[in-house]
Amino acid sequence: MENVDVSATGIQKTSGILSGSISLSLGTAIGAACQFLRTMIVARIITREDFGIAATFALTAALFDMISNMNTEKLLIQARDGDNPEFQKSAQTLEVIRGTAIAVILLILAGPVAQWFSVPQAKWGFQLLALLPLLRGLRHFDLQRLQRQMQFKPYVIADTGAQIFSVIIAWPVAAHCPDYAAMLYLLLAQEVFRCIGSHLIRKRPYRWGWQTEYLQRIISFGWPLLLNGIFMFLIFQGDKFIIGSSAQLFKSGGYSVGELGLYSMAFLVTSQPVAMISRVTSSLMLPSFSASQEQRGQLLDKYQKAFHGLSILSGLMASGCILIGGLLVILLMGEHYRNAMVLIGWLGMMQSLRILRDAPTMVTIALGDTRCTAVATGIRATALIGAIIVAALQMPLVWIAICGLIGEATALASILILARIRHAIPLWFATAPVAVTIAAAGLAETLRSFIHHEQSLMINTGIYGCIAVGIILFVCRFGGISFQSIAARLFRRQNVVSPQQE
After folding, report:
1. Residues with Cβ < 8 Å from 287, sequence gap 6 or more?
2. pLDDT class of 499 with cuts at 50, 70, 90
3. 133 to each of 58, 139, 232, 239, how far by Cα in Å?
4. What is the pLDDT of residue 6?
5. Alpha helices (H) along 237-340
6. Residue 272 — φ and ψ, nearest 5°?
């Protein structure tokens, strides 16, 4: 009798997962740092009003992207036959059609959109922006397909390379065009580089195809996420959209373009780290959860440990924004953004809850259920009702941020309840993570209130940074949460023994 030892194979798989995780985390961190650095360079050169106009470009691009995104790349990762070349060809064909249609619509509506945001002088910019969806539609999906095998390096190289390129040219572009046009040129240059990179760093040739079966599956999978995308726009861009178009919405007047620039900067500073975290964690959780679809005990174990890991990141986000967020903006962007300090604290707490929501979102998608995400996101979008009331009454911008915090808390509670009802996922798994986040934010605010702002910004930033790190160490030590145990549980190697052979 002979036992077949497959431990080497298991070690190889584990090594590949860890290598992919490190590559993705490092690449995402570099990309986020590059985007922040690019924004900082341009923000110090252009006025707050020009930054507000640039924000209207981002709003418009996000609107057309989110209301048409079928999330085909997620299906390529989630589906059992997502590695099929014909599946990929059909997905790429649909993406080209989508990108072309959006480009044409944006080109036609450039004038009305510029008038809506009360920036008629920027009509040419909205016309030029039509190139963005066209470039995105021509991307190669092979970089997403490879993530099925936890191969993140090709995607990381293409994405990070584009971000680094945009930073390299940021200063000369902003110096030559010291207004809102600088951000538009940099955005387009980055997308050109990313599109070219996706075709250079791939394993399969780029092809189009038309298989009705696959297209029907993409539509069936994507329509709830398409609805989710509309809600996502309302969540991530809706408040800025209300601020930017308030002059058109309310006859009594509205917020200025400069105030839109202020709020956009505060939102960018708080959302950028969360976007980085979400990209890494969702890319790791979705394939990991999907691999355990048929093994409920293993799936729940991974889910619980991932939730605990996210609670540490959530606590760090909340406390960091409260303690050092506003000071860093003043230090890096300039004194004309001082009024963003109070916004960053509230927006940081809102974003910390968004981090926690990634765990139930990914586990339900891994189970093939996208409706939970759509419903929860729709509930989150109802916070805009409060934002509209705030804008109509011309209340301070901070109240729009508070409405977002309330909406995010409601969305988190709703998806946890839906996951319990539809998939019997225990609610108590969320108890410790939510408590960790609330405790971290409360402790940070308490400590902040005892610190005087008489020192220089550099000294205060150092003090706040030490306090933020201390909070996280306290949570890890007394909360019984460790990154090592989370990683070991999430990516643990299963001991597989083959049948004995005589």
Report:
1. 77, 147, 148, 150
2. very low
3. 12, 10, 18, 23
4. 43
5. 238-244, 246-249, 257-290, 296-320, 326-333
6. -65, -50
Amino acid at 215: L
- Identify residue 27 by its one-letter amino acid code: G
pTM of the model: 0.77
Q: Is the pLDDT of residue 77 over 80?
A: no
Alpha carbon distance 21, 14 (integer Å)? 10
Give, in order, the Cα–Cα distances in Å from 92 to each of 100, 136, 255, 279.
Answer: 12, 11, 41, 21
| 360, 366, 371, 376: CA torsion to nearest 10 | 20
Neighbour count for residue 60 (Cβ, 10 Å): 25
pLDDT band, very low/low/confident/very high, at 10 (cuts 50, 70, 90): very low
Give exposure, 369-392, as e/b (b: 16+ Cβ within 10 Å).
bbebbbbbbbbbbebbebbbebbe
Angstrom distance (rounded) from CA 39 to CA 32: 11
What pLDDT is stored for residue 225 in this prediction? 73
Report phi then psi at 196, rounded to 5.
-65, -40
- The pLDDT mean for the chain works out to 81
> Cα–Cα distance between 34 and 168 in angstroms, integer?
9
Burial (CB count <10 Å: 0-12, 13-18, 19+), residue 145: buried
Are 425 and 289 a contacting pair, CB within 8 Å?
no
Q: What number of residues does the chain have?
A: 502
